[in-house]
Design brief:
The longest helix is centred in the N-terminal third of the chain and has 31 residues, at about 85-115. The chain folds into two domains: about 5-215, Cation efflux protein transmembrane domain (Alpha-lytic protease prodomain-like, Up-down Bundle); about 220-320, 2-Layer Sandwich (Alpha-Beta Plaits), CATH 3.30.70.1350. It has nine helices and six strands, in the order H-H-H-H-H-H-H-H-E-E-H-E-E-E-E. By secondary structure, the protein is α+β, with helices and mostly antiparallel strands. Strands 3-2-1-6 form a four-stranded mixed sheet. It has a two-stranded antiparallel ribbon with strand order 4-5.
């Protein structure tokens, strides 16, 4: 019995999500061109690895662009739960792309160290890398704000890409400056390897976060506790127990389903009305969650249902979780 609120709910400001995703595609395309030109002119492997990094960012931005559009589509006959998990899949793809790109960077840096490659014409490279840092900081801040406001994993992953790009660009800028000052050519590939290490950390984090959602990890403890306290707030309305509480995420959407027990003698109409009010309360407290409640009388619990919910040890099946406080009979 999903709430009318959850059925009508859509992601906040989907048009804004689409626009910032497109902004990321445009900025990455421009930076790739600049970095390839700068890397070719300067001969810097660090600048070229930055171009590789931006290329990965571009692919990730394109993935994010299409995933946020698809995720905002309503549920259909083939996807009854909606399309929100496409965003989590996109974030996982972005994480894999980061790891692949870091391996390419390390390979090229080691090849340059062994081959004694030289950096030259540093001026233009310094300017391009500085511009790249400024652009990525501004665009990542814009995308991050939108990701936070909409709960979009794909945009959050894209923002993480750009922040990492800005940090690695700063490292490259420092490396080029040191090469210019000291003349030590080994600094350039070493900086590139350090950049790759930073990229790996970001990729592993993105892949881990998205994978937990894809395998239906439960909601954070704070949100589960908000659900439990919401249920207990209805003790005076005839709610005497609950069990089989399950939660998960898909994109920005939260899903909650559980069994609620009502005191003996509660009419179906009264229990149904109370359940709808409880659904609305949970949705308000847990980011607009889609809540499904199964109604049960006080003495009906099937064996094994009340053993463990959401990692909390529950009473035996014959004694499901009870709501504290003396419930009153529903009118």
């Amino acid at each position: 019995m999903p709430t009318s609120t959850s059925l009508n709910r859509v992601h906040a400001a989907p048009v804004v999500k689409h626009r910032v995703a497109a902004l990321s595609v445009i900025s990455n395309s421009t930076l790739i061109l600049l970095k390839v030109v700068a890397g070719t002119i300067t001969g810097s492997v660090a600048v070229l690895t930055e171009a590789v990094h931006s290329s990965i960012d571009l692919v990730a931005s394109v993935v994010a662009f299409f995933s946020v559009r698809k995720a905002d589509e309503p549920a259909d006959d083939s996807h009854r739960y909606g399309h929100e998990k496409i965003e989590n899949l996109a974030a996982a793809i972005e994480g894999i792309l980061i790891l692949v790109g870091s391996a390419a960077i390390v390979f090229e840096a080691i090849r340059r160290l062994v081959g004694n490659g030289r950096v030259h014409t540093l001026g233009f490279g310094l300017v391009v890398v500085a511009v790249s840092i400024a652009v990525n900081v501004i665009v990542s801040m814009r995308i991050s704000r939108t990701a936070l406001a909409t709960g979009s994993p794909a945009l959050a992953g894209d923002a993480a890409h750009l922040r990492t790009d800005a940090m690695t660009s700063a490292a490259v800028l420092l490396g080029l400056a040191l090469v210019k000052i000291t003349g030590a050519q080994w600094i350039d590939p070493v900086v590139a390897i350090a950049v790759a290490a930073a990229i790996v950390v970001t990729g592993v984090r993105l892949l881990s976060n998205s994978s937990r959602v894809l395998v239906d990890e439960s909601l954070p403890p704070g949100e589960v506790e908000a659900i439990r306290s919401s249920i207990e707030a209805f003790a005076a309305r005839g709610v005497v127990g609950y069990h089989a509480l399950r939660t998960r995420r898909a994109g920005a959407r939260r899903y909650v389903d559980l069994h609620i027990q009502f005191i003996s003698g509660t009419s179906l109409e009264s229990a149904h009305r109370t359940a709808h009010e409880l659904q609305d309360m949970i949705a308000r407290r847990v980011n607009g969650a889609d809540v499904l409640i199964h109604l049960e009388p006080q003495d009906r619990v099937r064996p094994g249902e009340a053993l463990a919910d959401e990692g909390h040890v529950r009473p035996p099946a014959s004694d499901p979780a009870r709501i504290p406080g003396p419930p009153s009979s529903a009118g």
